[in-house]
């Protein structure tokens, strides 16, 4: 979808549709009042007759409203004005987009950003409007032989601001929204791609394609031979069971001076996680194609970075492999040596994410990073702890953890901290190696992070567990594109410092 920004009065917009809000009970928003006056009170009349009272989720589509230039007027119920919070605003925008998508209007002019969302600026509303509208119309139909086409889909939205002075700032908000939406969409596409197509080599090619389109982004891919030479024994132990060779993908975005220390993002890229020899139950195992959503979010952020041109240096590291059972696969009891030199007893081959991440985290040190953030669908326990609302964040540097939580609150892509106390480290004791790769049932998300913390002791580091947020299960099974918005917001904040 294409977005643009404008200012002007609602009755004068020559458009297929003008979108305005209605509050409970039967109270028109500002733009609604303008349309009402122009039409000689038609809108008030409709409301009075009881066709709509402004409840959240209600919609009313009017045609040929007299003395209004647009062909249609879409009234969107917004609930009580003082209850208009972030989530409600996003729901209203999504509903407006899907409603219009099913009408003949291919283009619309929206006055929703004038609505008073509690504690939120014009900038925030415009950006969220772009993201939510784009998200609402996202479809993944590459693999359908006949796409489920909409007759005349919504293709263009013009977001209205109240006056001309607000246009310049509005354009910046719009550009951010468009960049983030594109990043999220890329992450969703990669996540949704079936695992027979989305292999480590395919993922590496997507990274190459991304870098090719952007002068500020370069890329490199290490092969298994390179990883062997370096000593990435933990990563390679996961790849043993797979016929698809593992890849180590490196992306570099250069927006600042050469010597400026980068932010390093490390994304888990398990393109299919069967559990390996510690095989998973077969129910819903297809969803383990999403086990590369950490990697997808890193690529999504790079997509956004290319458009936003932030004055930062950012490195993306993606260890990519499958985790499958095989005669040559790793076995419970195997001991491997990581790139850091520390040895690991593999007690469960299904705890593979931390094995590939630990070598990537050690590799990250060579960039002398300002901070390292890893992003991974790491533990089922995270879904039990936080559900599907928040990603878990854990780290060894509280300002970094705090900045990530703040970026989550600002972007609506939220994260919540879990403790990384010393006491939890005990659960990783091994009788035979420096550590075990699992810490038992209690606090599974925390002990996974404890494991990673042993490879980042000298760095400012944080870990995002996105097992509950990166995709949704059930009837509407889909990758969500999270946490691209959180990470991009974090980088926007850094760039503004
Ligand atoms: N990729 C999974 C984590 C996961 C599970 C994400 C379910 C989303 C939904 C990860 O590799 C894994 O299997 N983790 C194990 C760890 C355990 C063996 C310590 C888990 O969570 O069960
Ligand atoms: Mn696993
Ligand atoms: Zn996994």
Write out key terms for the chains shown.
binds manganese (II) ion, binds zinc ion, alpha/beta, nine-stranded mixed beta sheet, single chain, binds ligand BES, 497 residues, Leucine Aminopeptidase, subunit E, domain 1
How would you explain this protein's 3D organization?
With 497 residues, the protein is an alpha/beta fold. The protein folds into 2 domains: 2-160, Leucine Aminopeptidase, subunit E, domain 1 (3-Layer(aba) Sandwich); 181-496, Aminopeptidase (3-Layer(aba) Sandwich), CATH 3.40.630.10. Helices cover 35% and strands 20% of the residues. It contains 14 helices and 21 strands. The chain has helices spanning 30-38, 42-48, 86-101, 122-136, 167-192, 200-212, 224-230, 233-239, 293-308, 353-364, 380-386, 398-411, 444-453, 484-496, and strands spanning 2-7, 18-23, 27-28, 59-63, 72-77, 107-110, 156-161, 217-222, 247-254, 263-267, 269-273, 313-323, 335-337, 343-345, 371-376, 391-395, 415-417, 435-436, 461-465, 471-472, 478-479. The strands form 4 sheets. Strands 8, 9, 10, 11, 12, 15, 16, 17 and 19 form a 9-stranded mixed β-sheet that branches. Strand 4 and strand 5 form a beta hairpin. The longest helix is centred in the middle third of the chain and has 26 residues, at 167-192. The protein is elongated, with a radius of gyration of 25 Å. The chain binds ligand BES, manganese (II) ion and zinc ion (ZN).
| Helix share, percent | 25-40%
CATH homologous superfamily of the largest domain - what is it? Zn peptidases
Q: Tell me, what is the CATH class of the largest domain?
A: Alpha Beta
Number of strands: 21
Instruction: Tell me the distance between the termini.
Output: 32 Å
* Biggest sheet record: 9 strands, mixed
Structure annotation, total helices: 14
Q: Compute the number of structural domains.
A: 2
Oligomer: single chain
Overall pLDDT confidence: 97
Our Rg estimate from Cα atoms comes to 25 Å
Strand content: 15-25%
Net shape: elongated
């Amino acid at each position: 979808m294409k977005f643009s920004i404008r200012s002007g009065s609602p009755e004068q917009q020559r458009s297929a549709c003008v979108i305005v809000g209605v509050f409970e009970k039967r109270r028109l928003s500002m733009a609604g009042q303008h349309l009402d006056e122009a039409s000689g009170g038609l809108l008030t009349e409709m409301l009075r007759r009881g066709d709509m009272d402004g409840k959240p989720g209600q919609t009313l589509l009017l045609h040929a409203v007299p003395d209004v230039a647009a062909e249609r007027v879409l009234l969107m119920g917004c609930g009580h004005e003082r209850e208009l919070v972030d989530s409600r605003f996003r729901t209203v925008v999504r509903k407006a987009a899907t409603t219009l998508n099913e009408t003949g209007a291919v283009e619309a002019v929206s006055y929703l950003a004038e609505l008073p969302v509690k504690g939120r600026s014009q900038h925030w509303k415009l950006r969220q409007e772009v993201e939510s509208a784009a998200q609402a119309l996202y479809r993944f139909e590459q693999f359908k032989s006949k796409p489920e086409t909409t007759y005349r889909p919504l293709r263009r939205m013009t977001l209205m601001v109240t006056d001309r002075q607000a246009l310049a700032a509005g354009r910046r908000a719009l550009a951010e929204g468009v960049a983030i939406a594109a990043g999220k969409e890329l992450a969703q596409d990669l996540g949704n791609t079936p695992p027979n197509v989305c292999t480590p080599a395919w993922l590496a090619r997507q990274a190459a394609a991304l870098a090719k389109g952007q002068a500020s982004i370069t890329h490199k891919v290490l092969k298994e031979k390179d990883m062997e030479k370096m000593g990435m024994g933990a990563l390679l132990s996961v790849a043993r069971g797979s016929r698809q060779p593992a890849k180590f993908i490196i992306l570099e975005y250069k927006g600042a001076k050469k010597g400026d220390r980068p932010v390093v993002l490390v994304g888990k890229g398990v393109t299919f996680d069967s559990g390996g020899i510690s095989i998973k139950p077969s129910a819903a195992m297809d969803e383990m194609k999403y086990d590369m959503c950490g990697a997808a979010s890193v690529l999504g952020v790079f997509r956004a970075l290319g458009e936003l041109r932030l004055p930062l240096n950012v490195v993306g590291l993606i260890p990519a492999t499958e985790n499958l059972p095989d005669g040559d696969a790793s076995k419970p009891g195997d001991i491997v040596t990581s790139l850091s030199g520390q040895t690991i007893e593999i007690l469960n081959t299904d705890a593979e994410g931390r094995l590939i991440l630990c070598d990537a985290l050690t590799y990250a040190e060579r960039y002398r990073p300002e901070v390292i953030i890893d992003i991974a669908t790491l533990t089922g326990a995270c879904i039990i702890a936080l559900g599907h609302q928040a990603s878990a964040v854990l780290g060894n540097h509280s300002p970094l953890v705090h900045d990530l939580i703040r970026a989550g609150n600002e972007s609506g892509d939220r994260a919540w901290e879990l403790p990384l106390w010393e006491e939890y480290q005990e659960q990783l004791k091994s009788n035979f190696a420096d550590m075990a790769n699992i810490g038992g049932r209690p606090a599974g998300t925390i002990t996974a992070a404890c494991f990673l913390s042993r490879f980042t002791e000298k760095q400012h580091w944080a870990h995002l567990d996105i097992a509950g947020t990166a995709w949704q299960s059930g009837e509407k099974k889909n990758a969500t594109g999270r946490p691209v918005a959180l990470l991009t917001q974090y980088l926007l904040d850094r760039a503004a410092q």
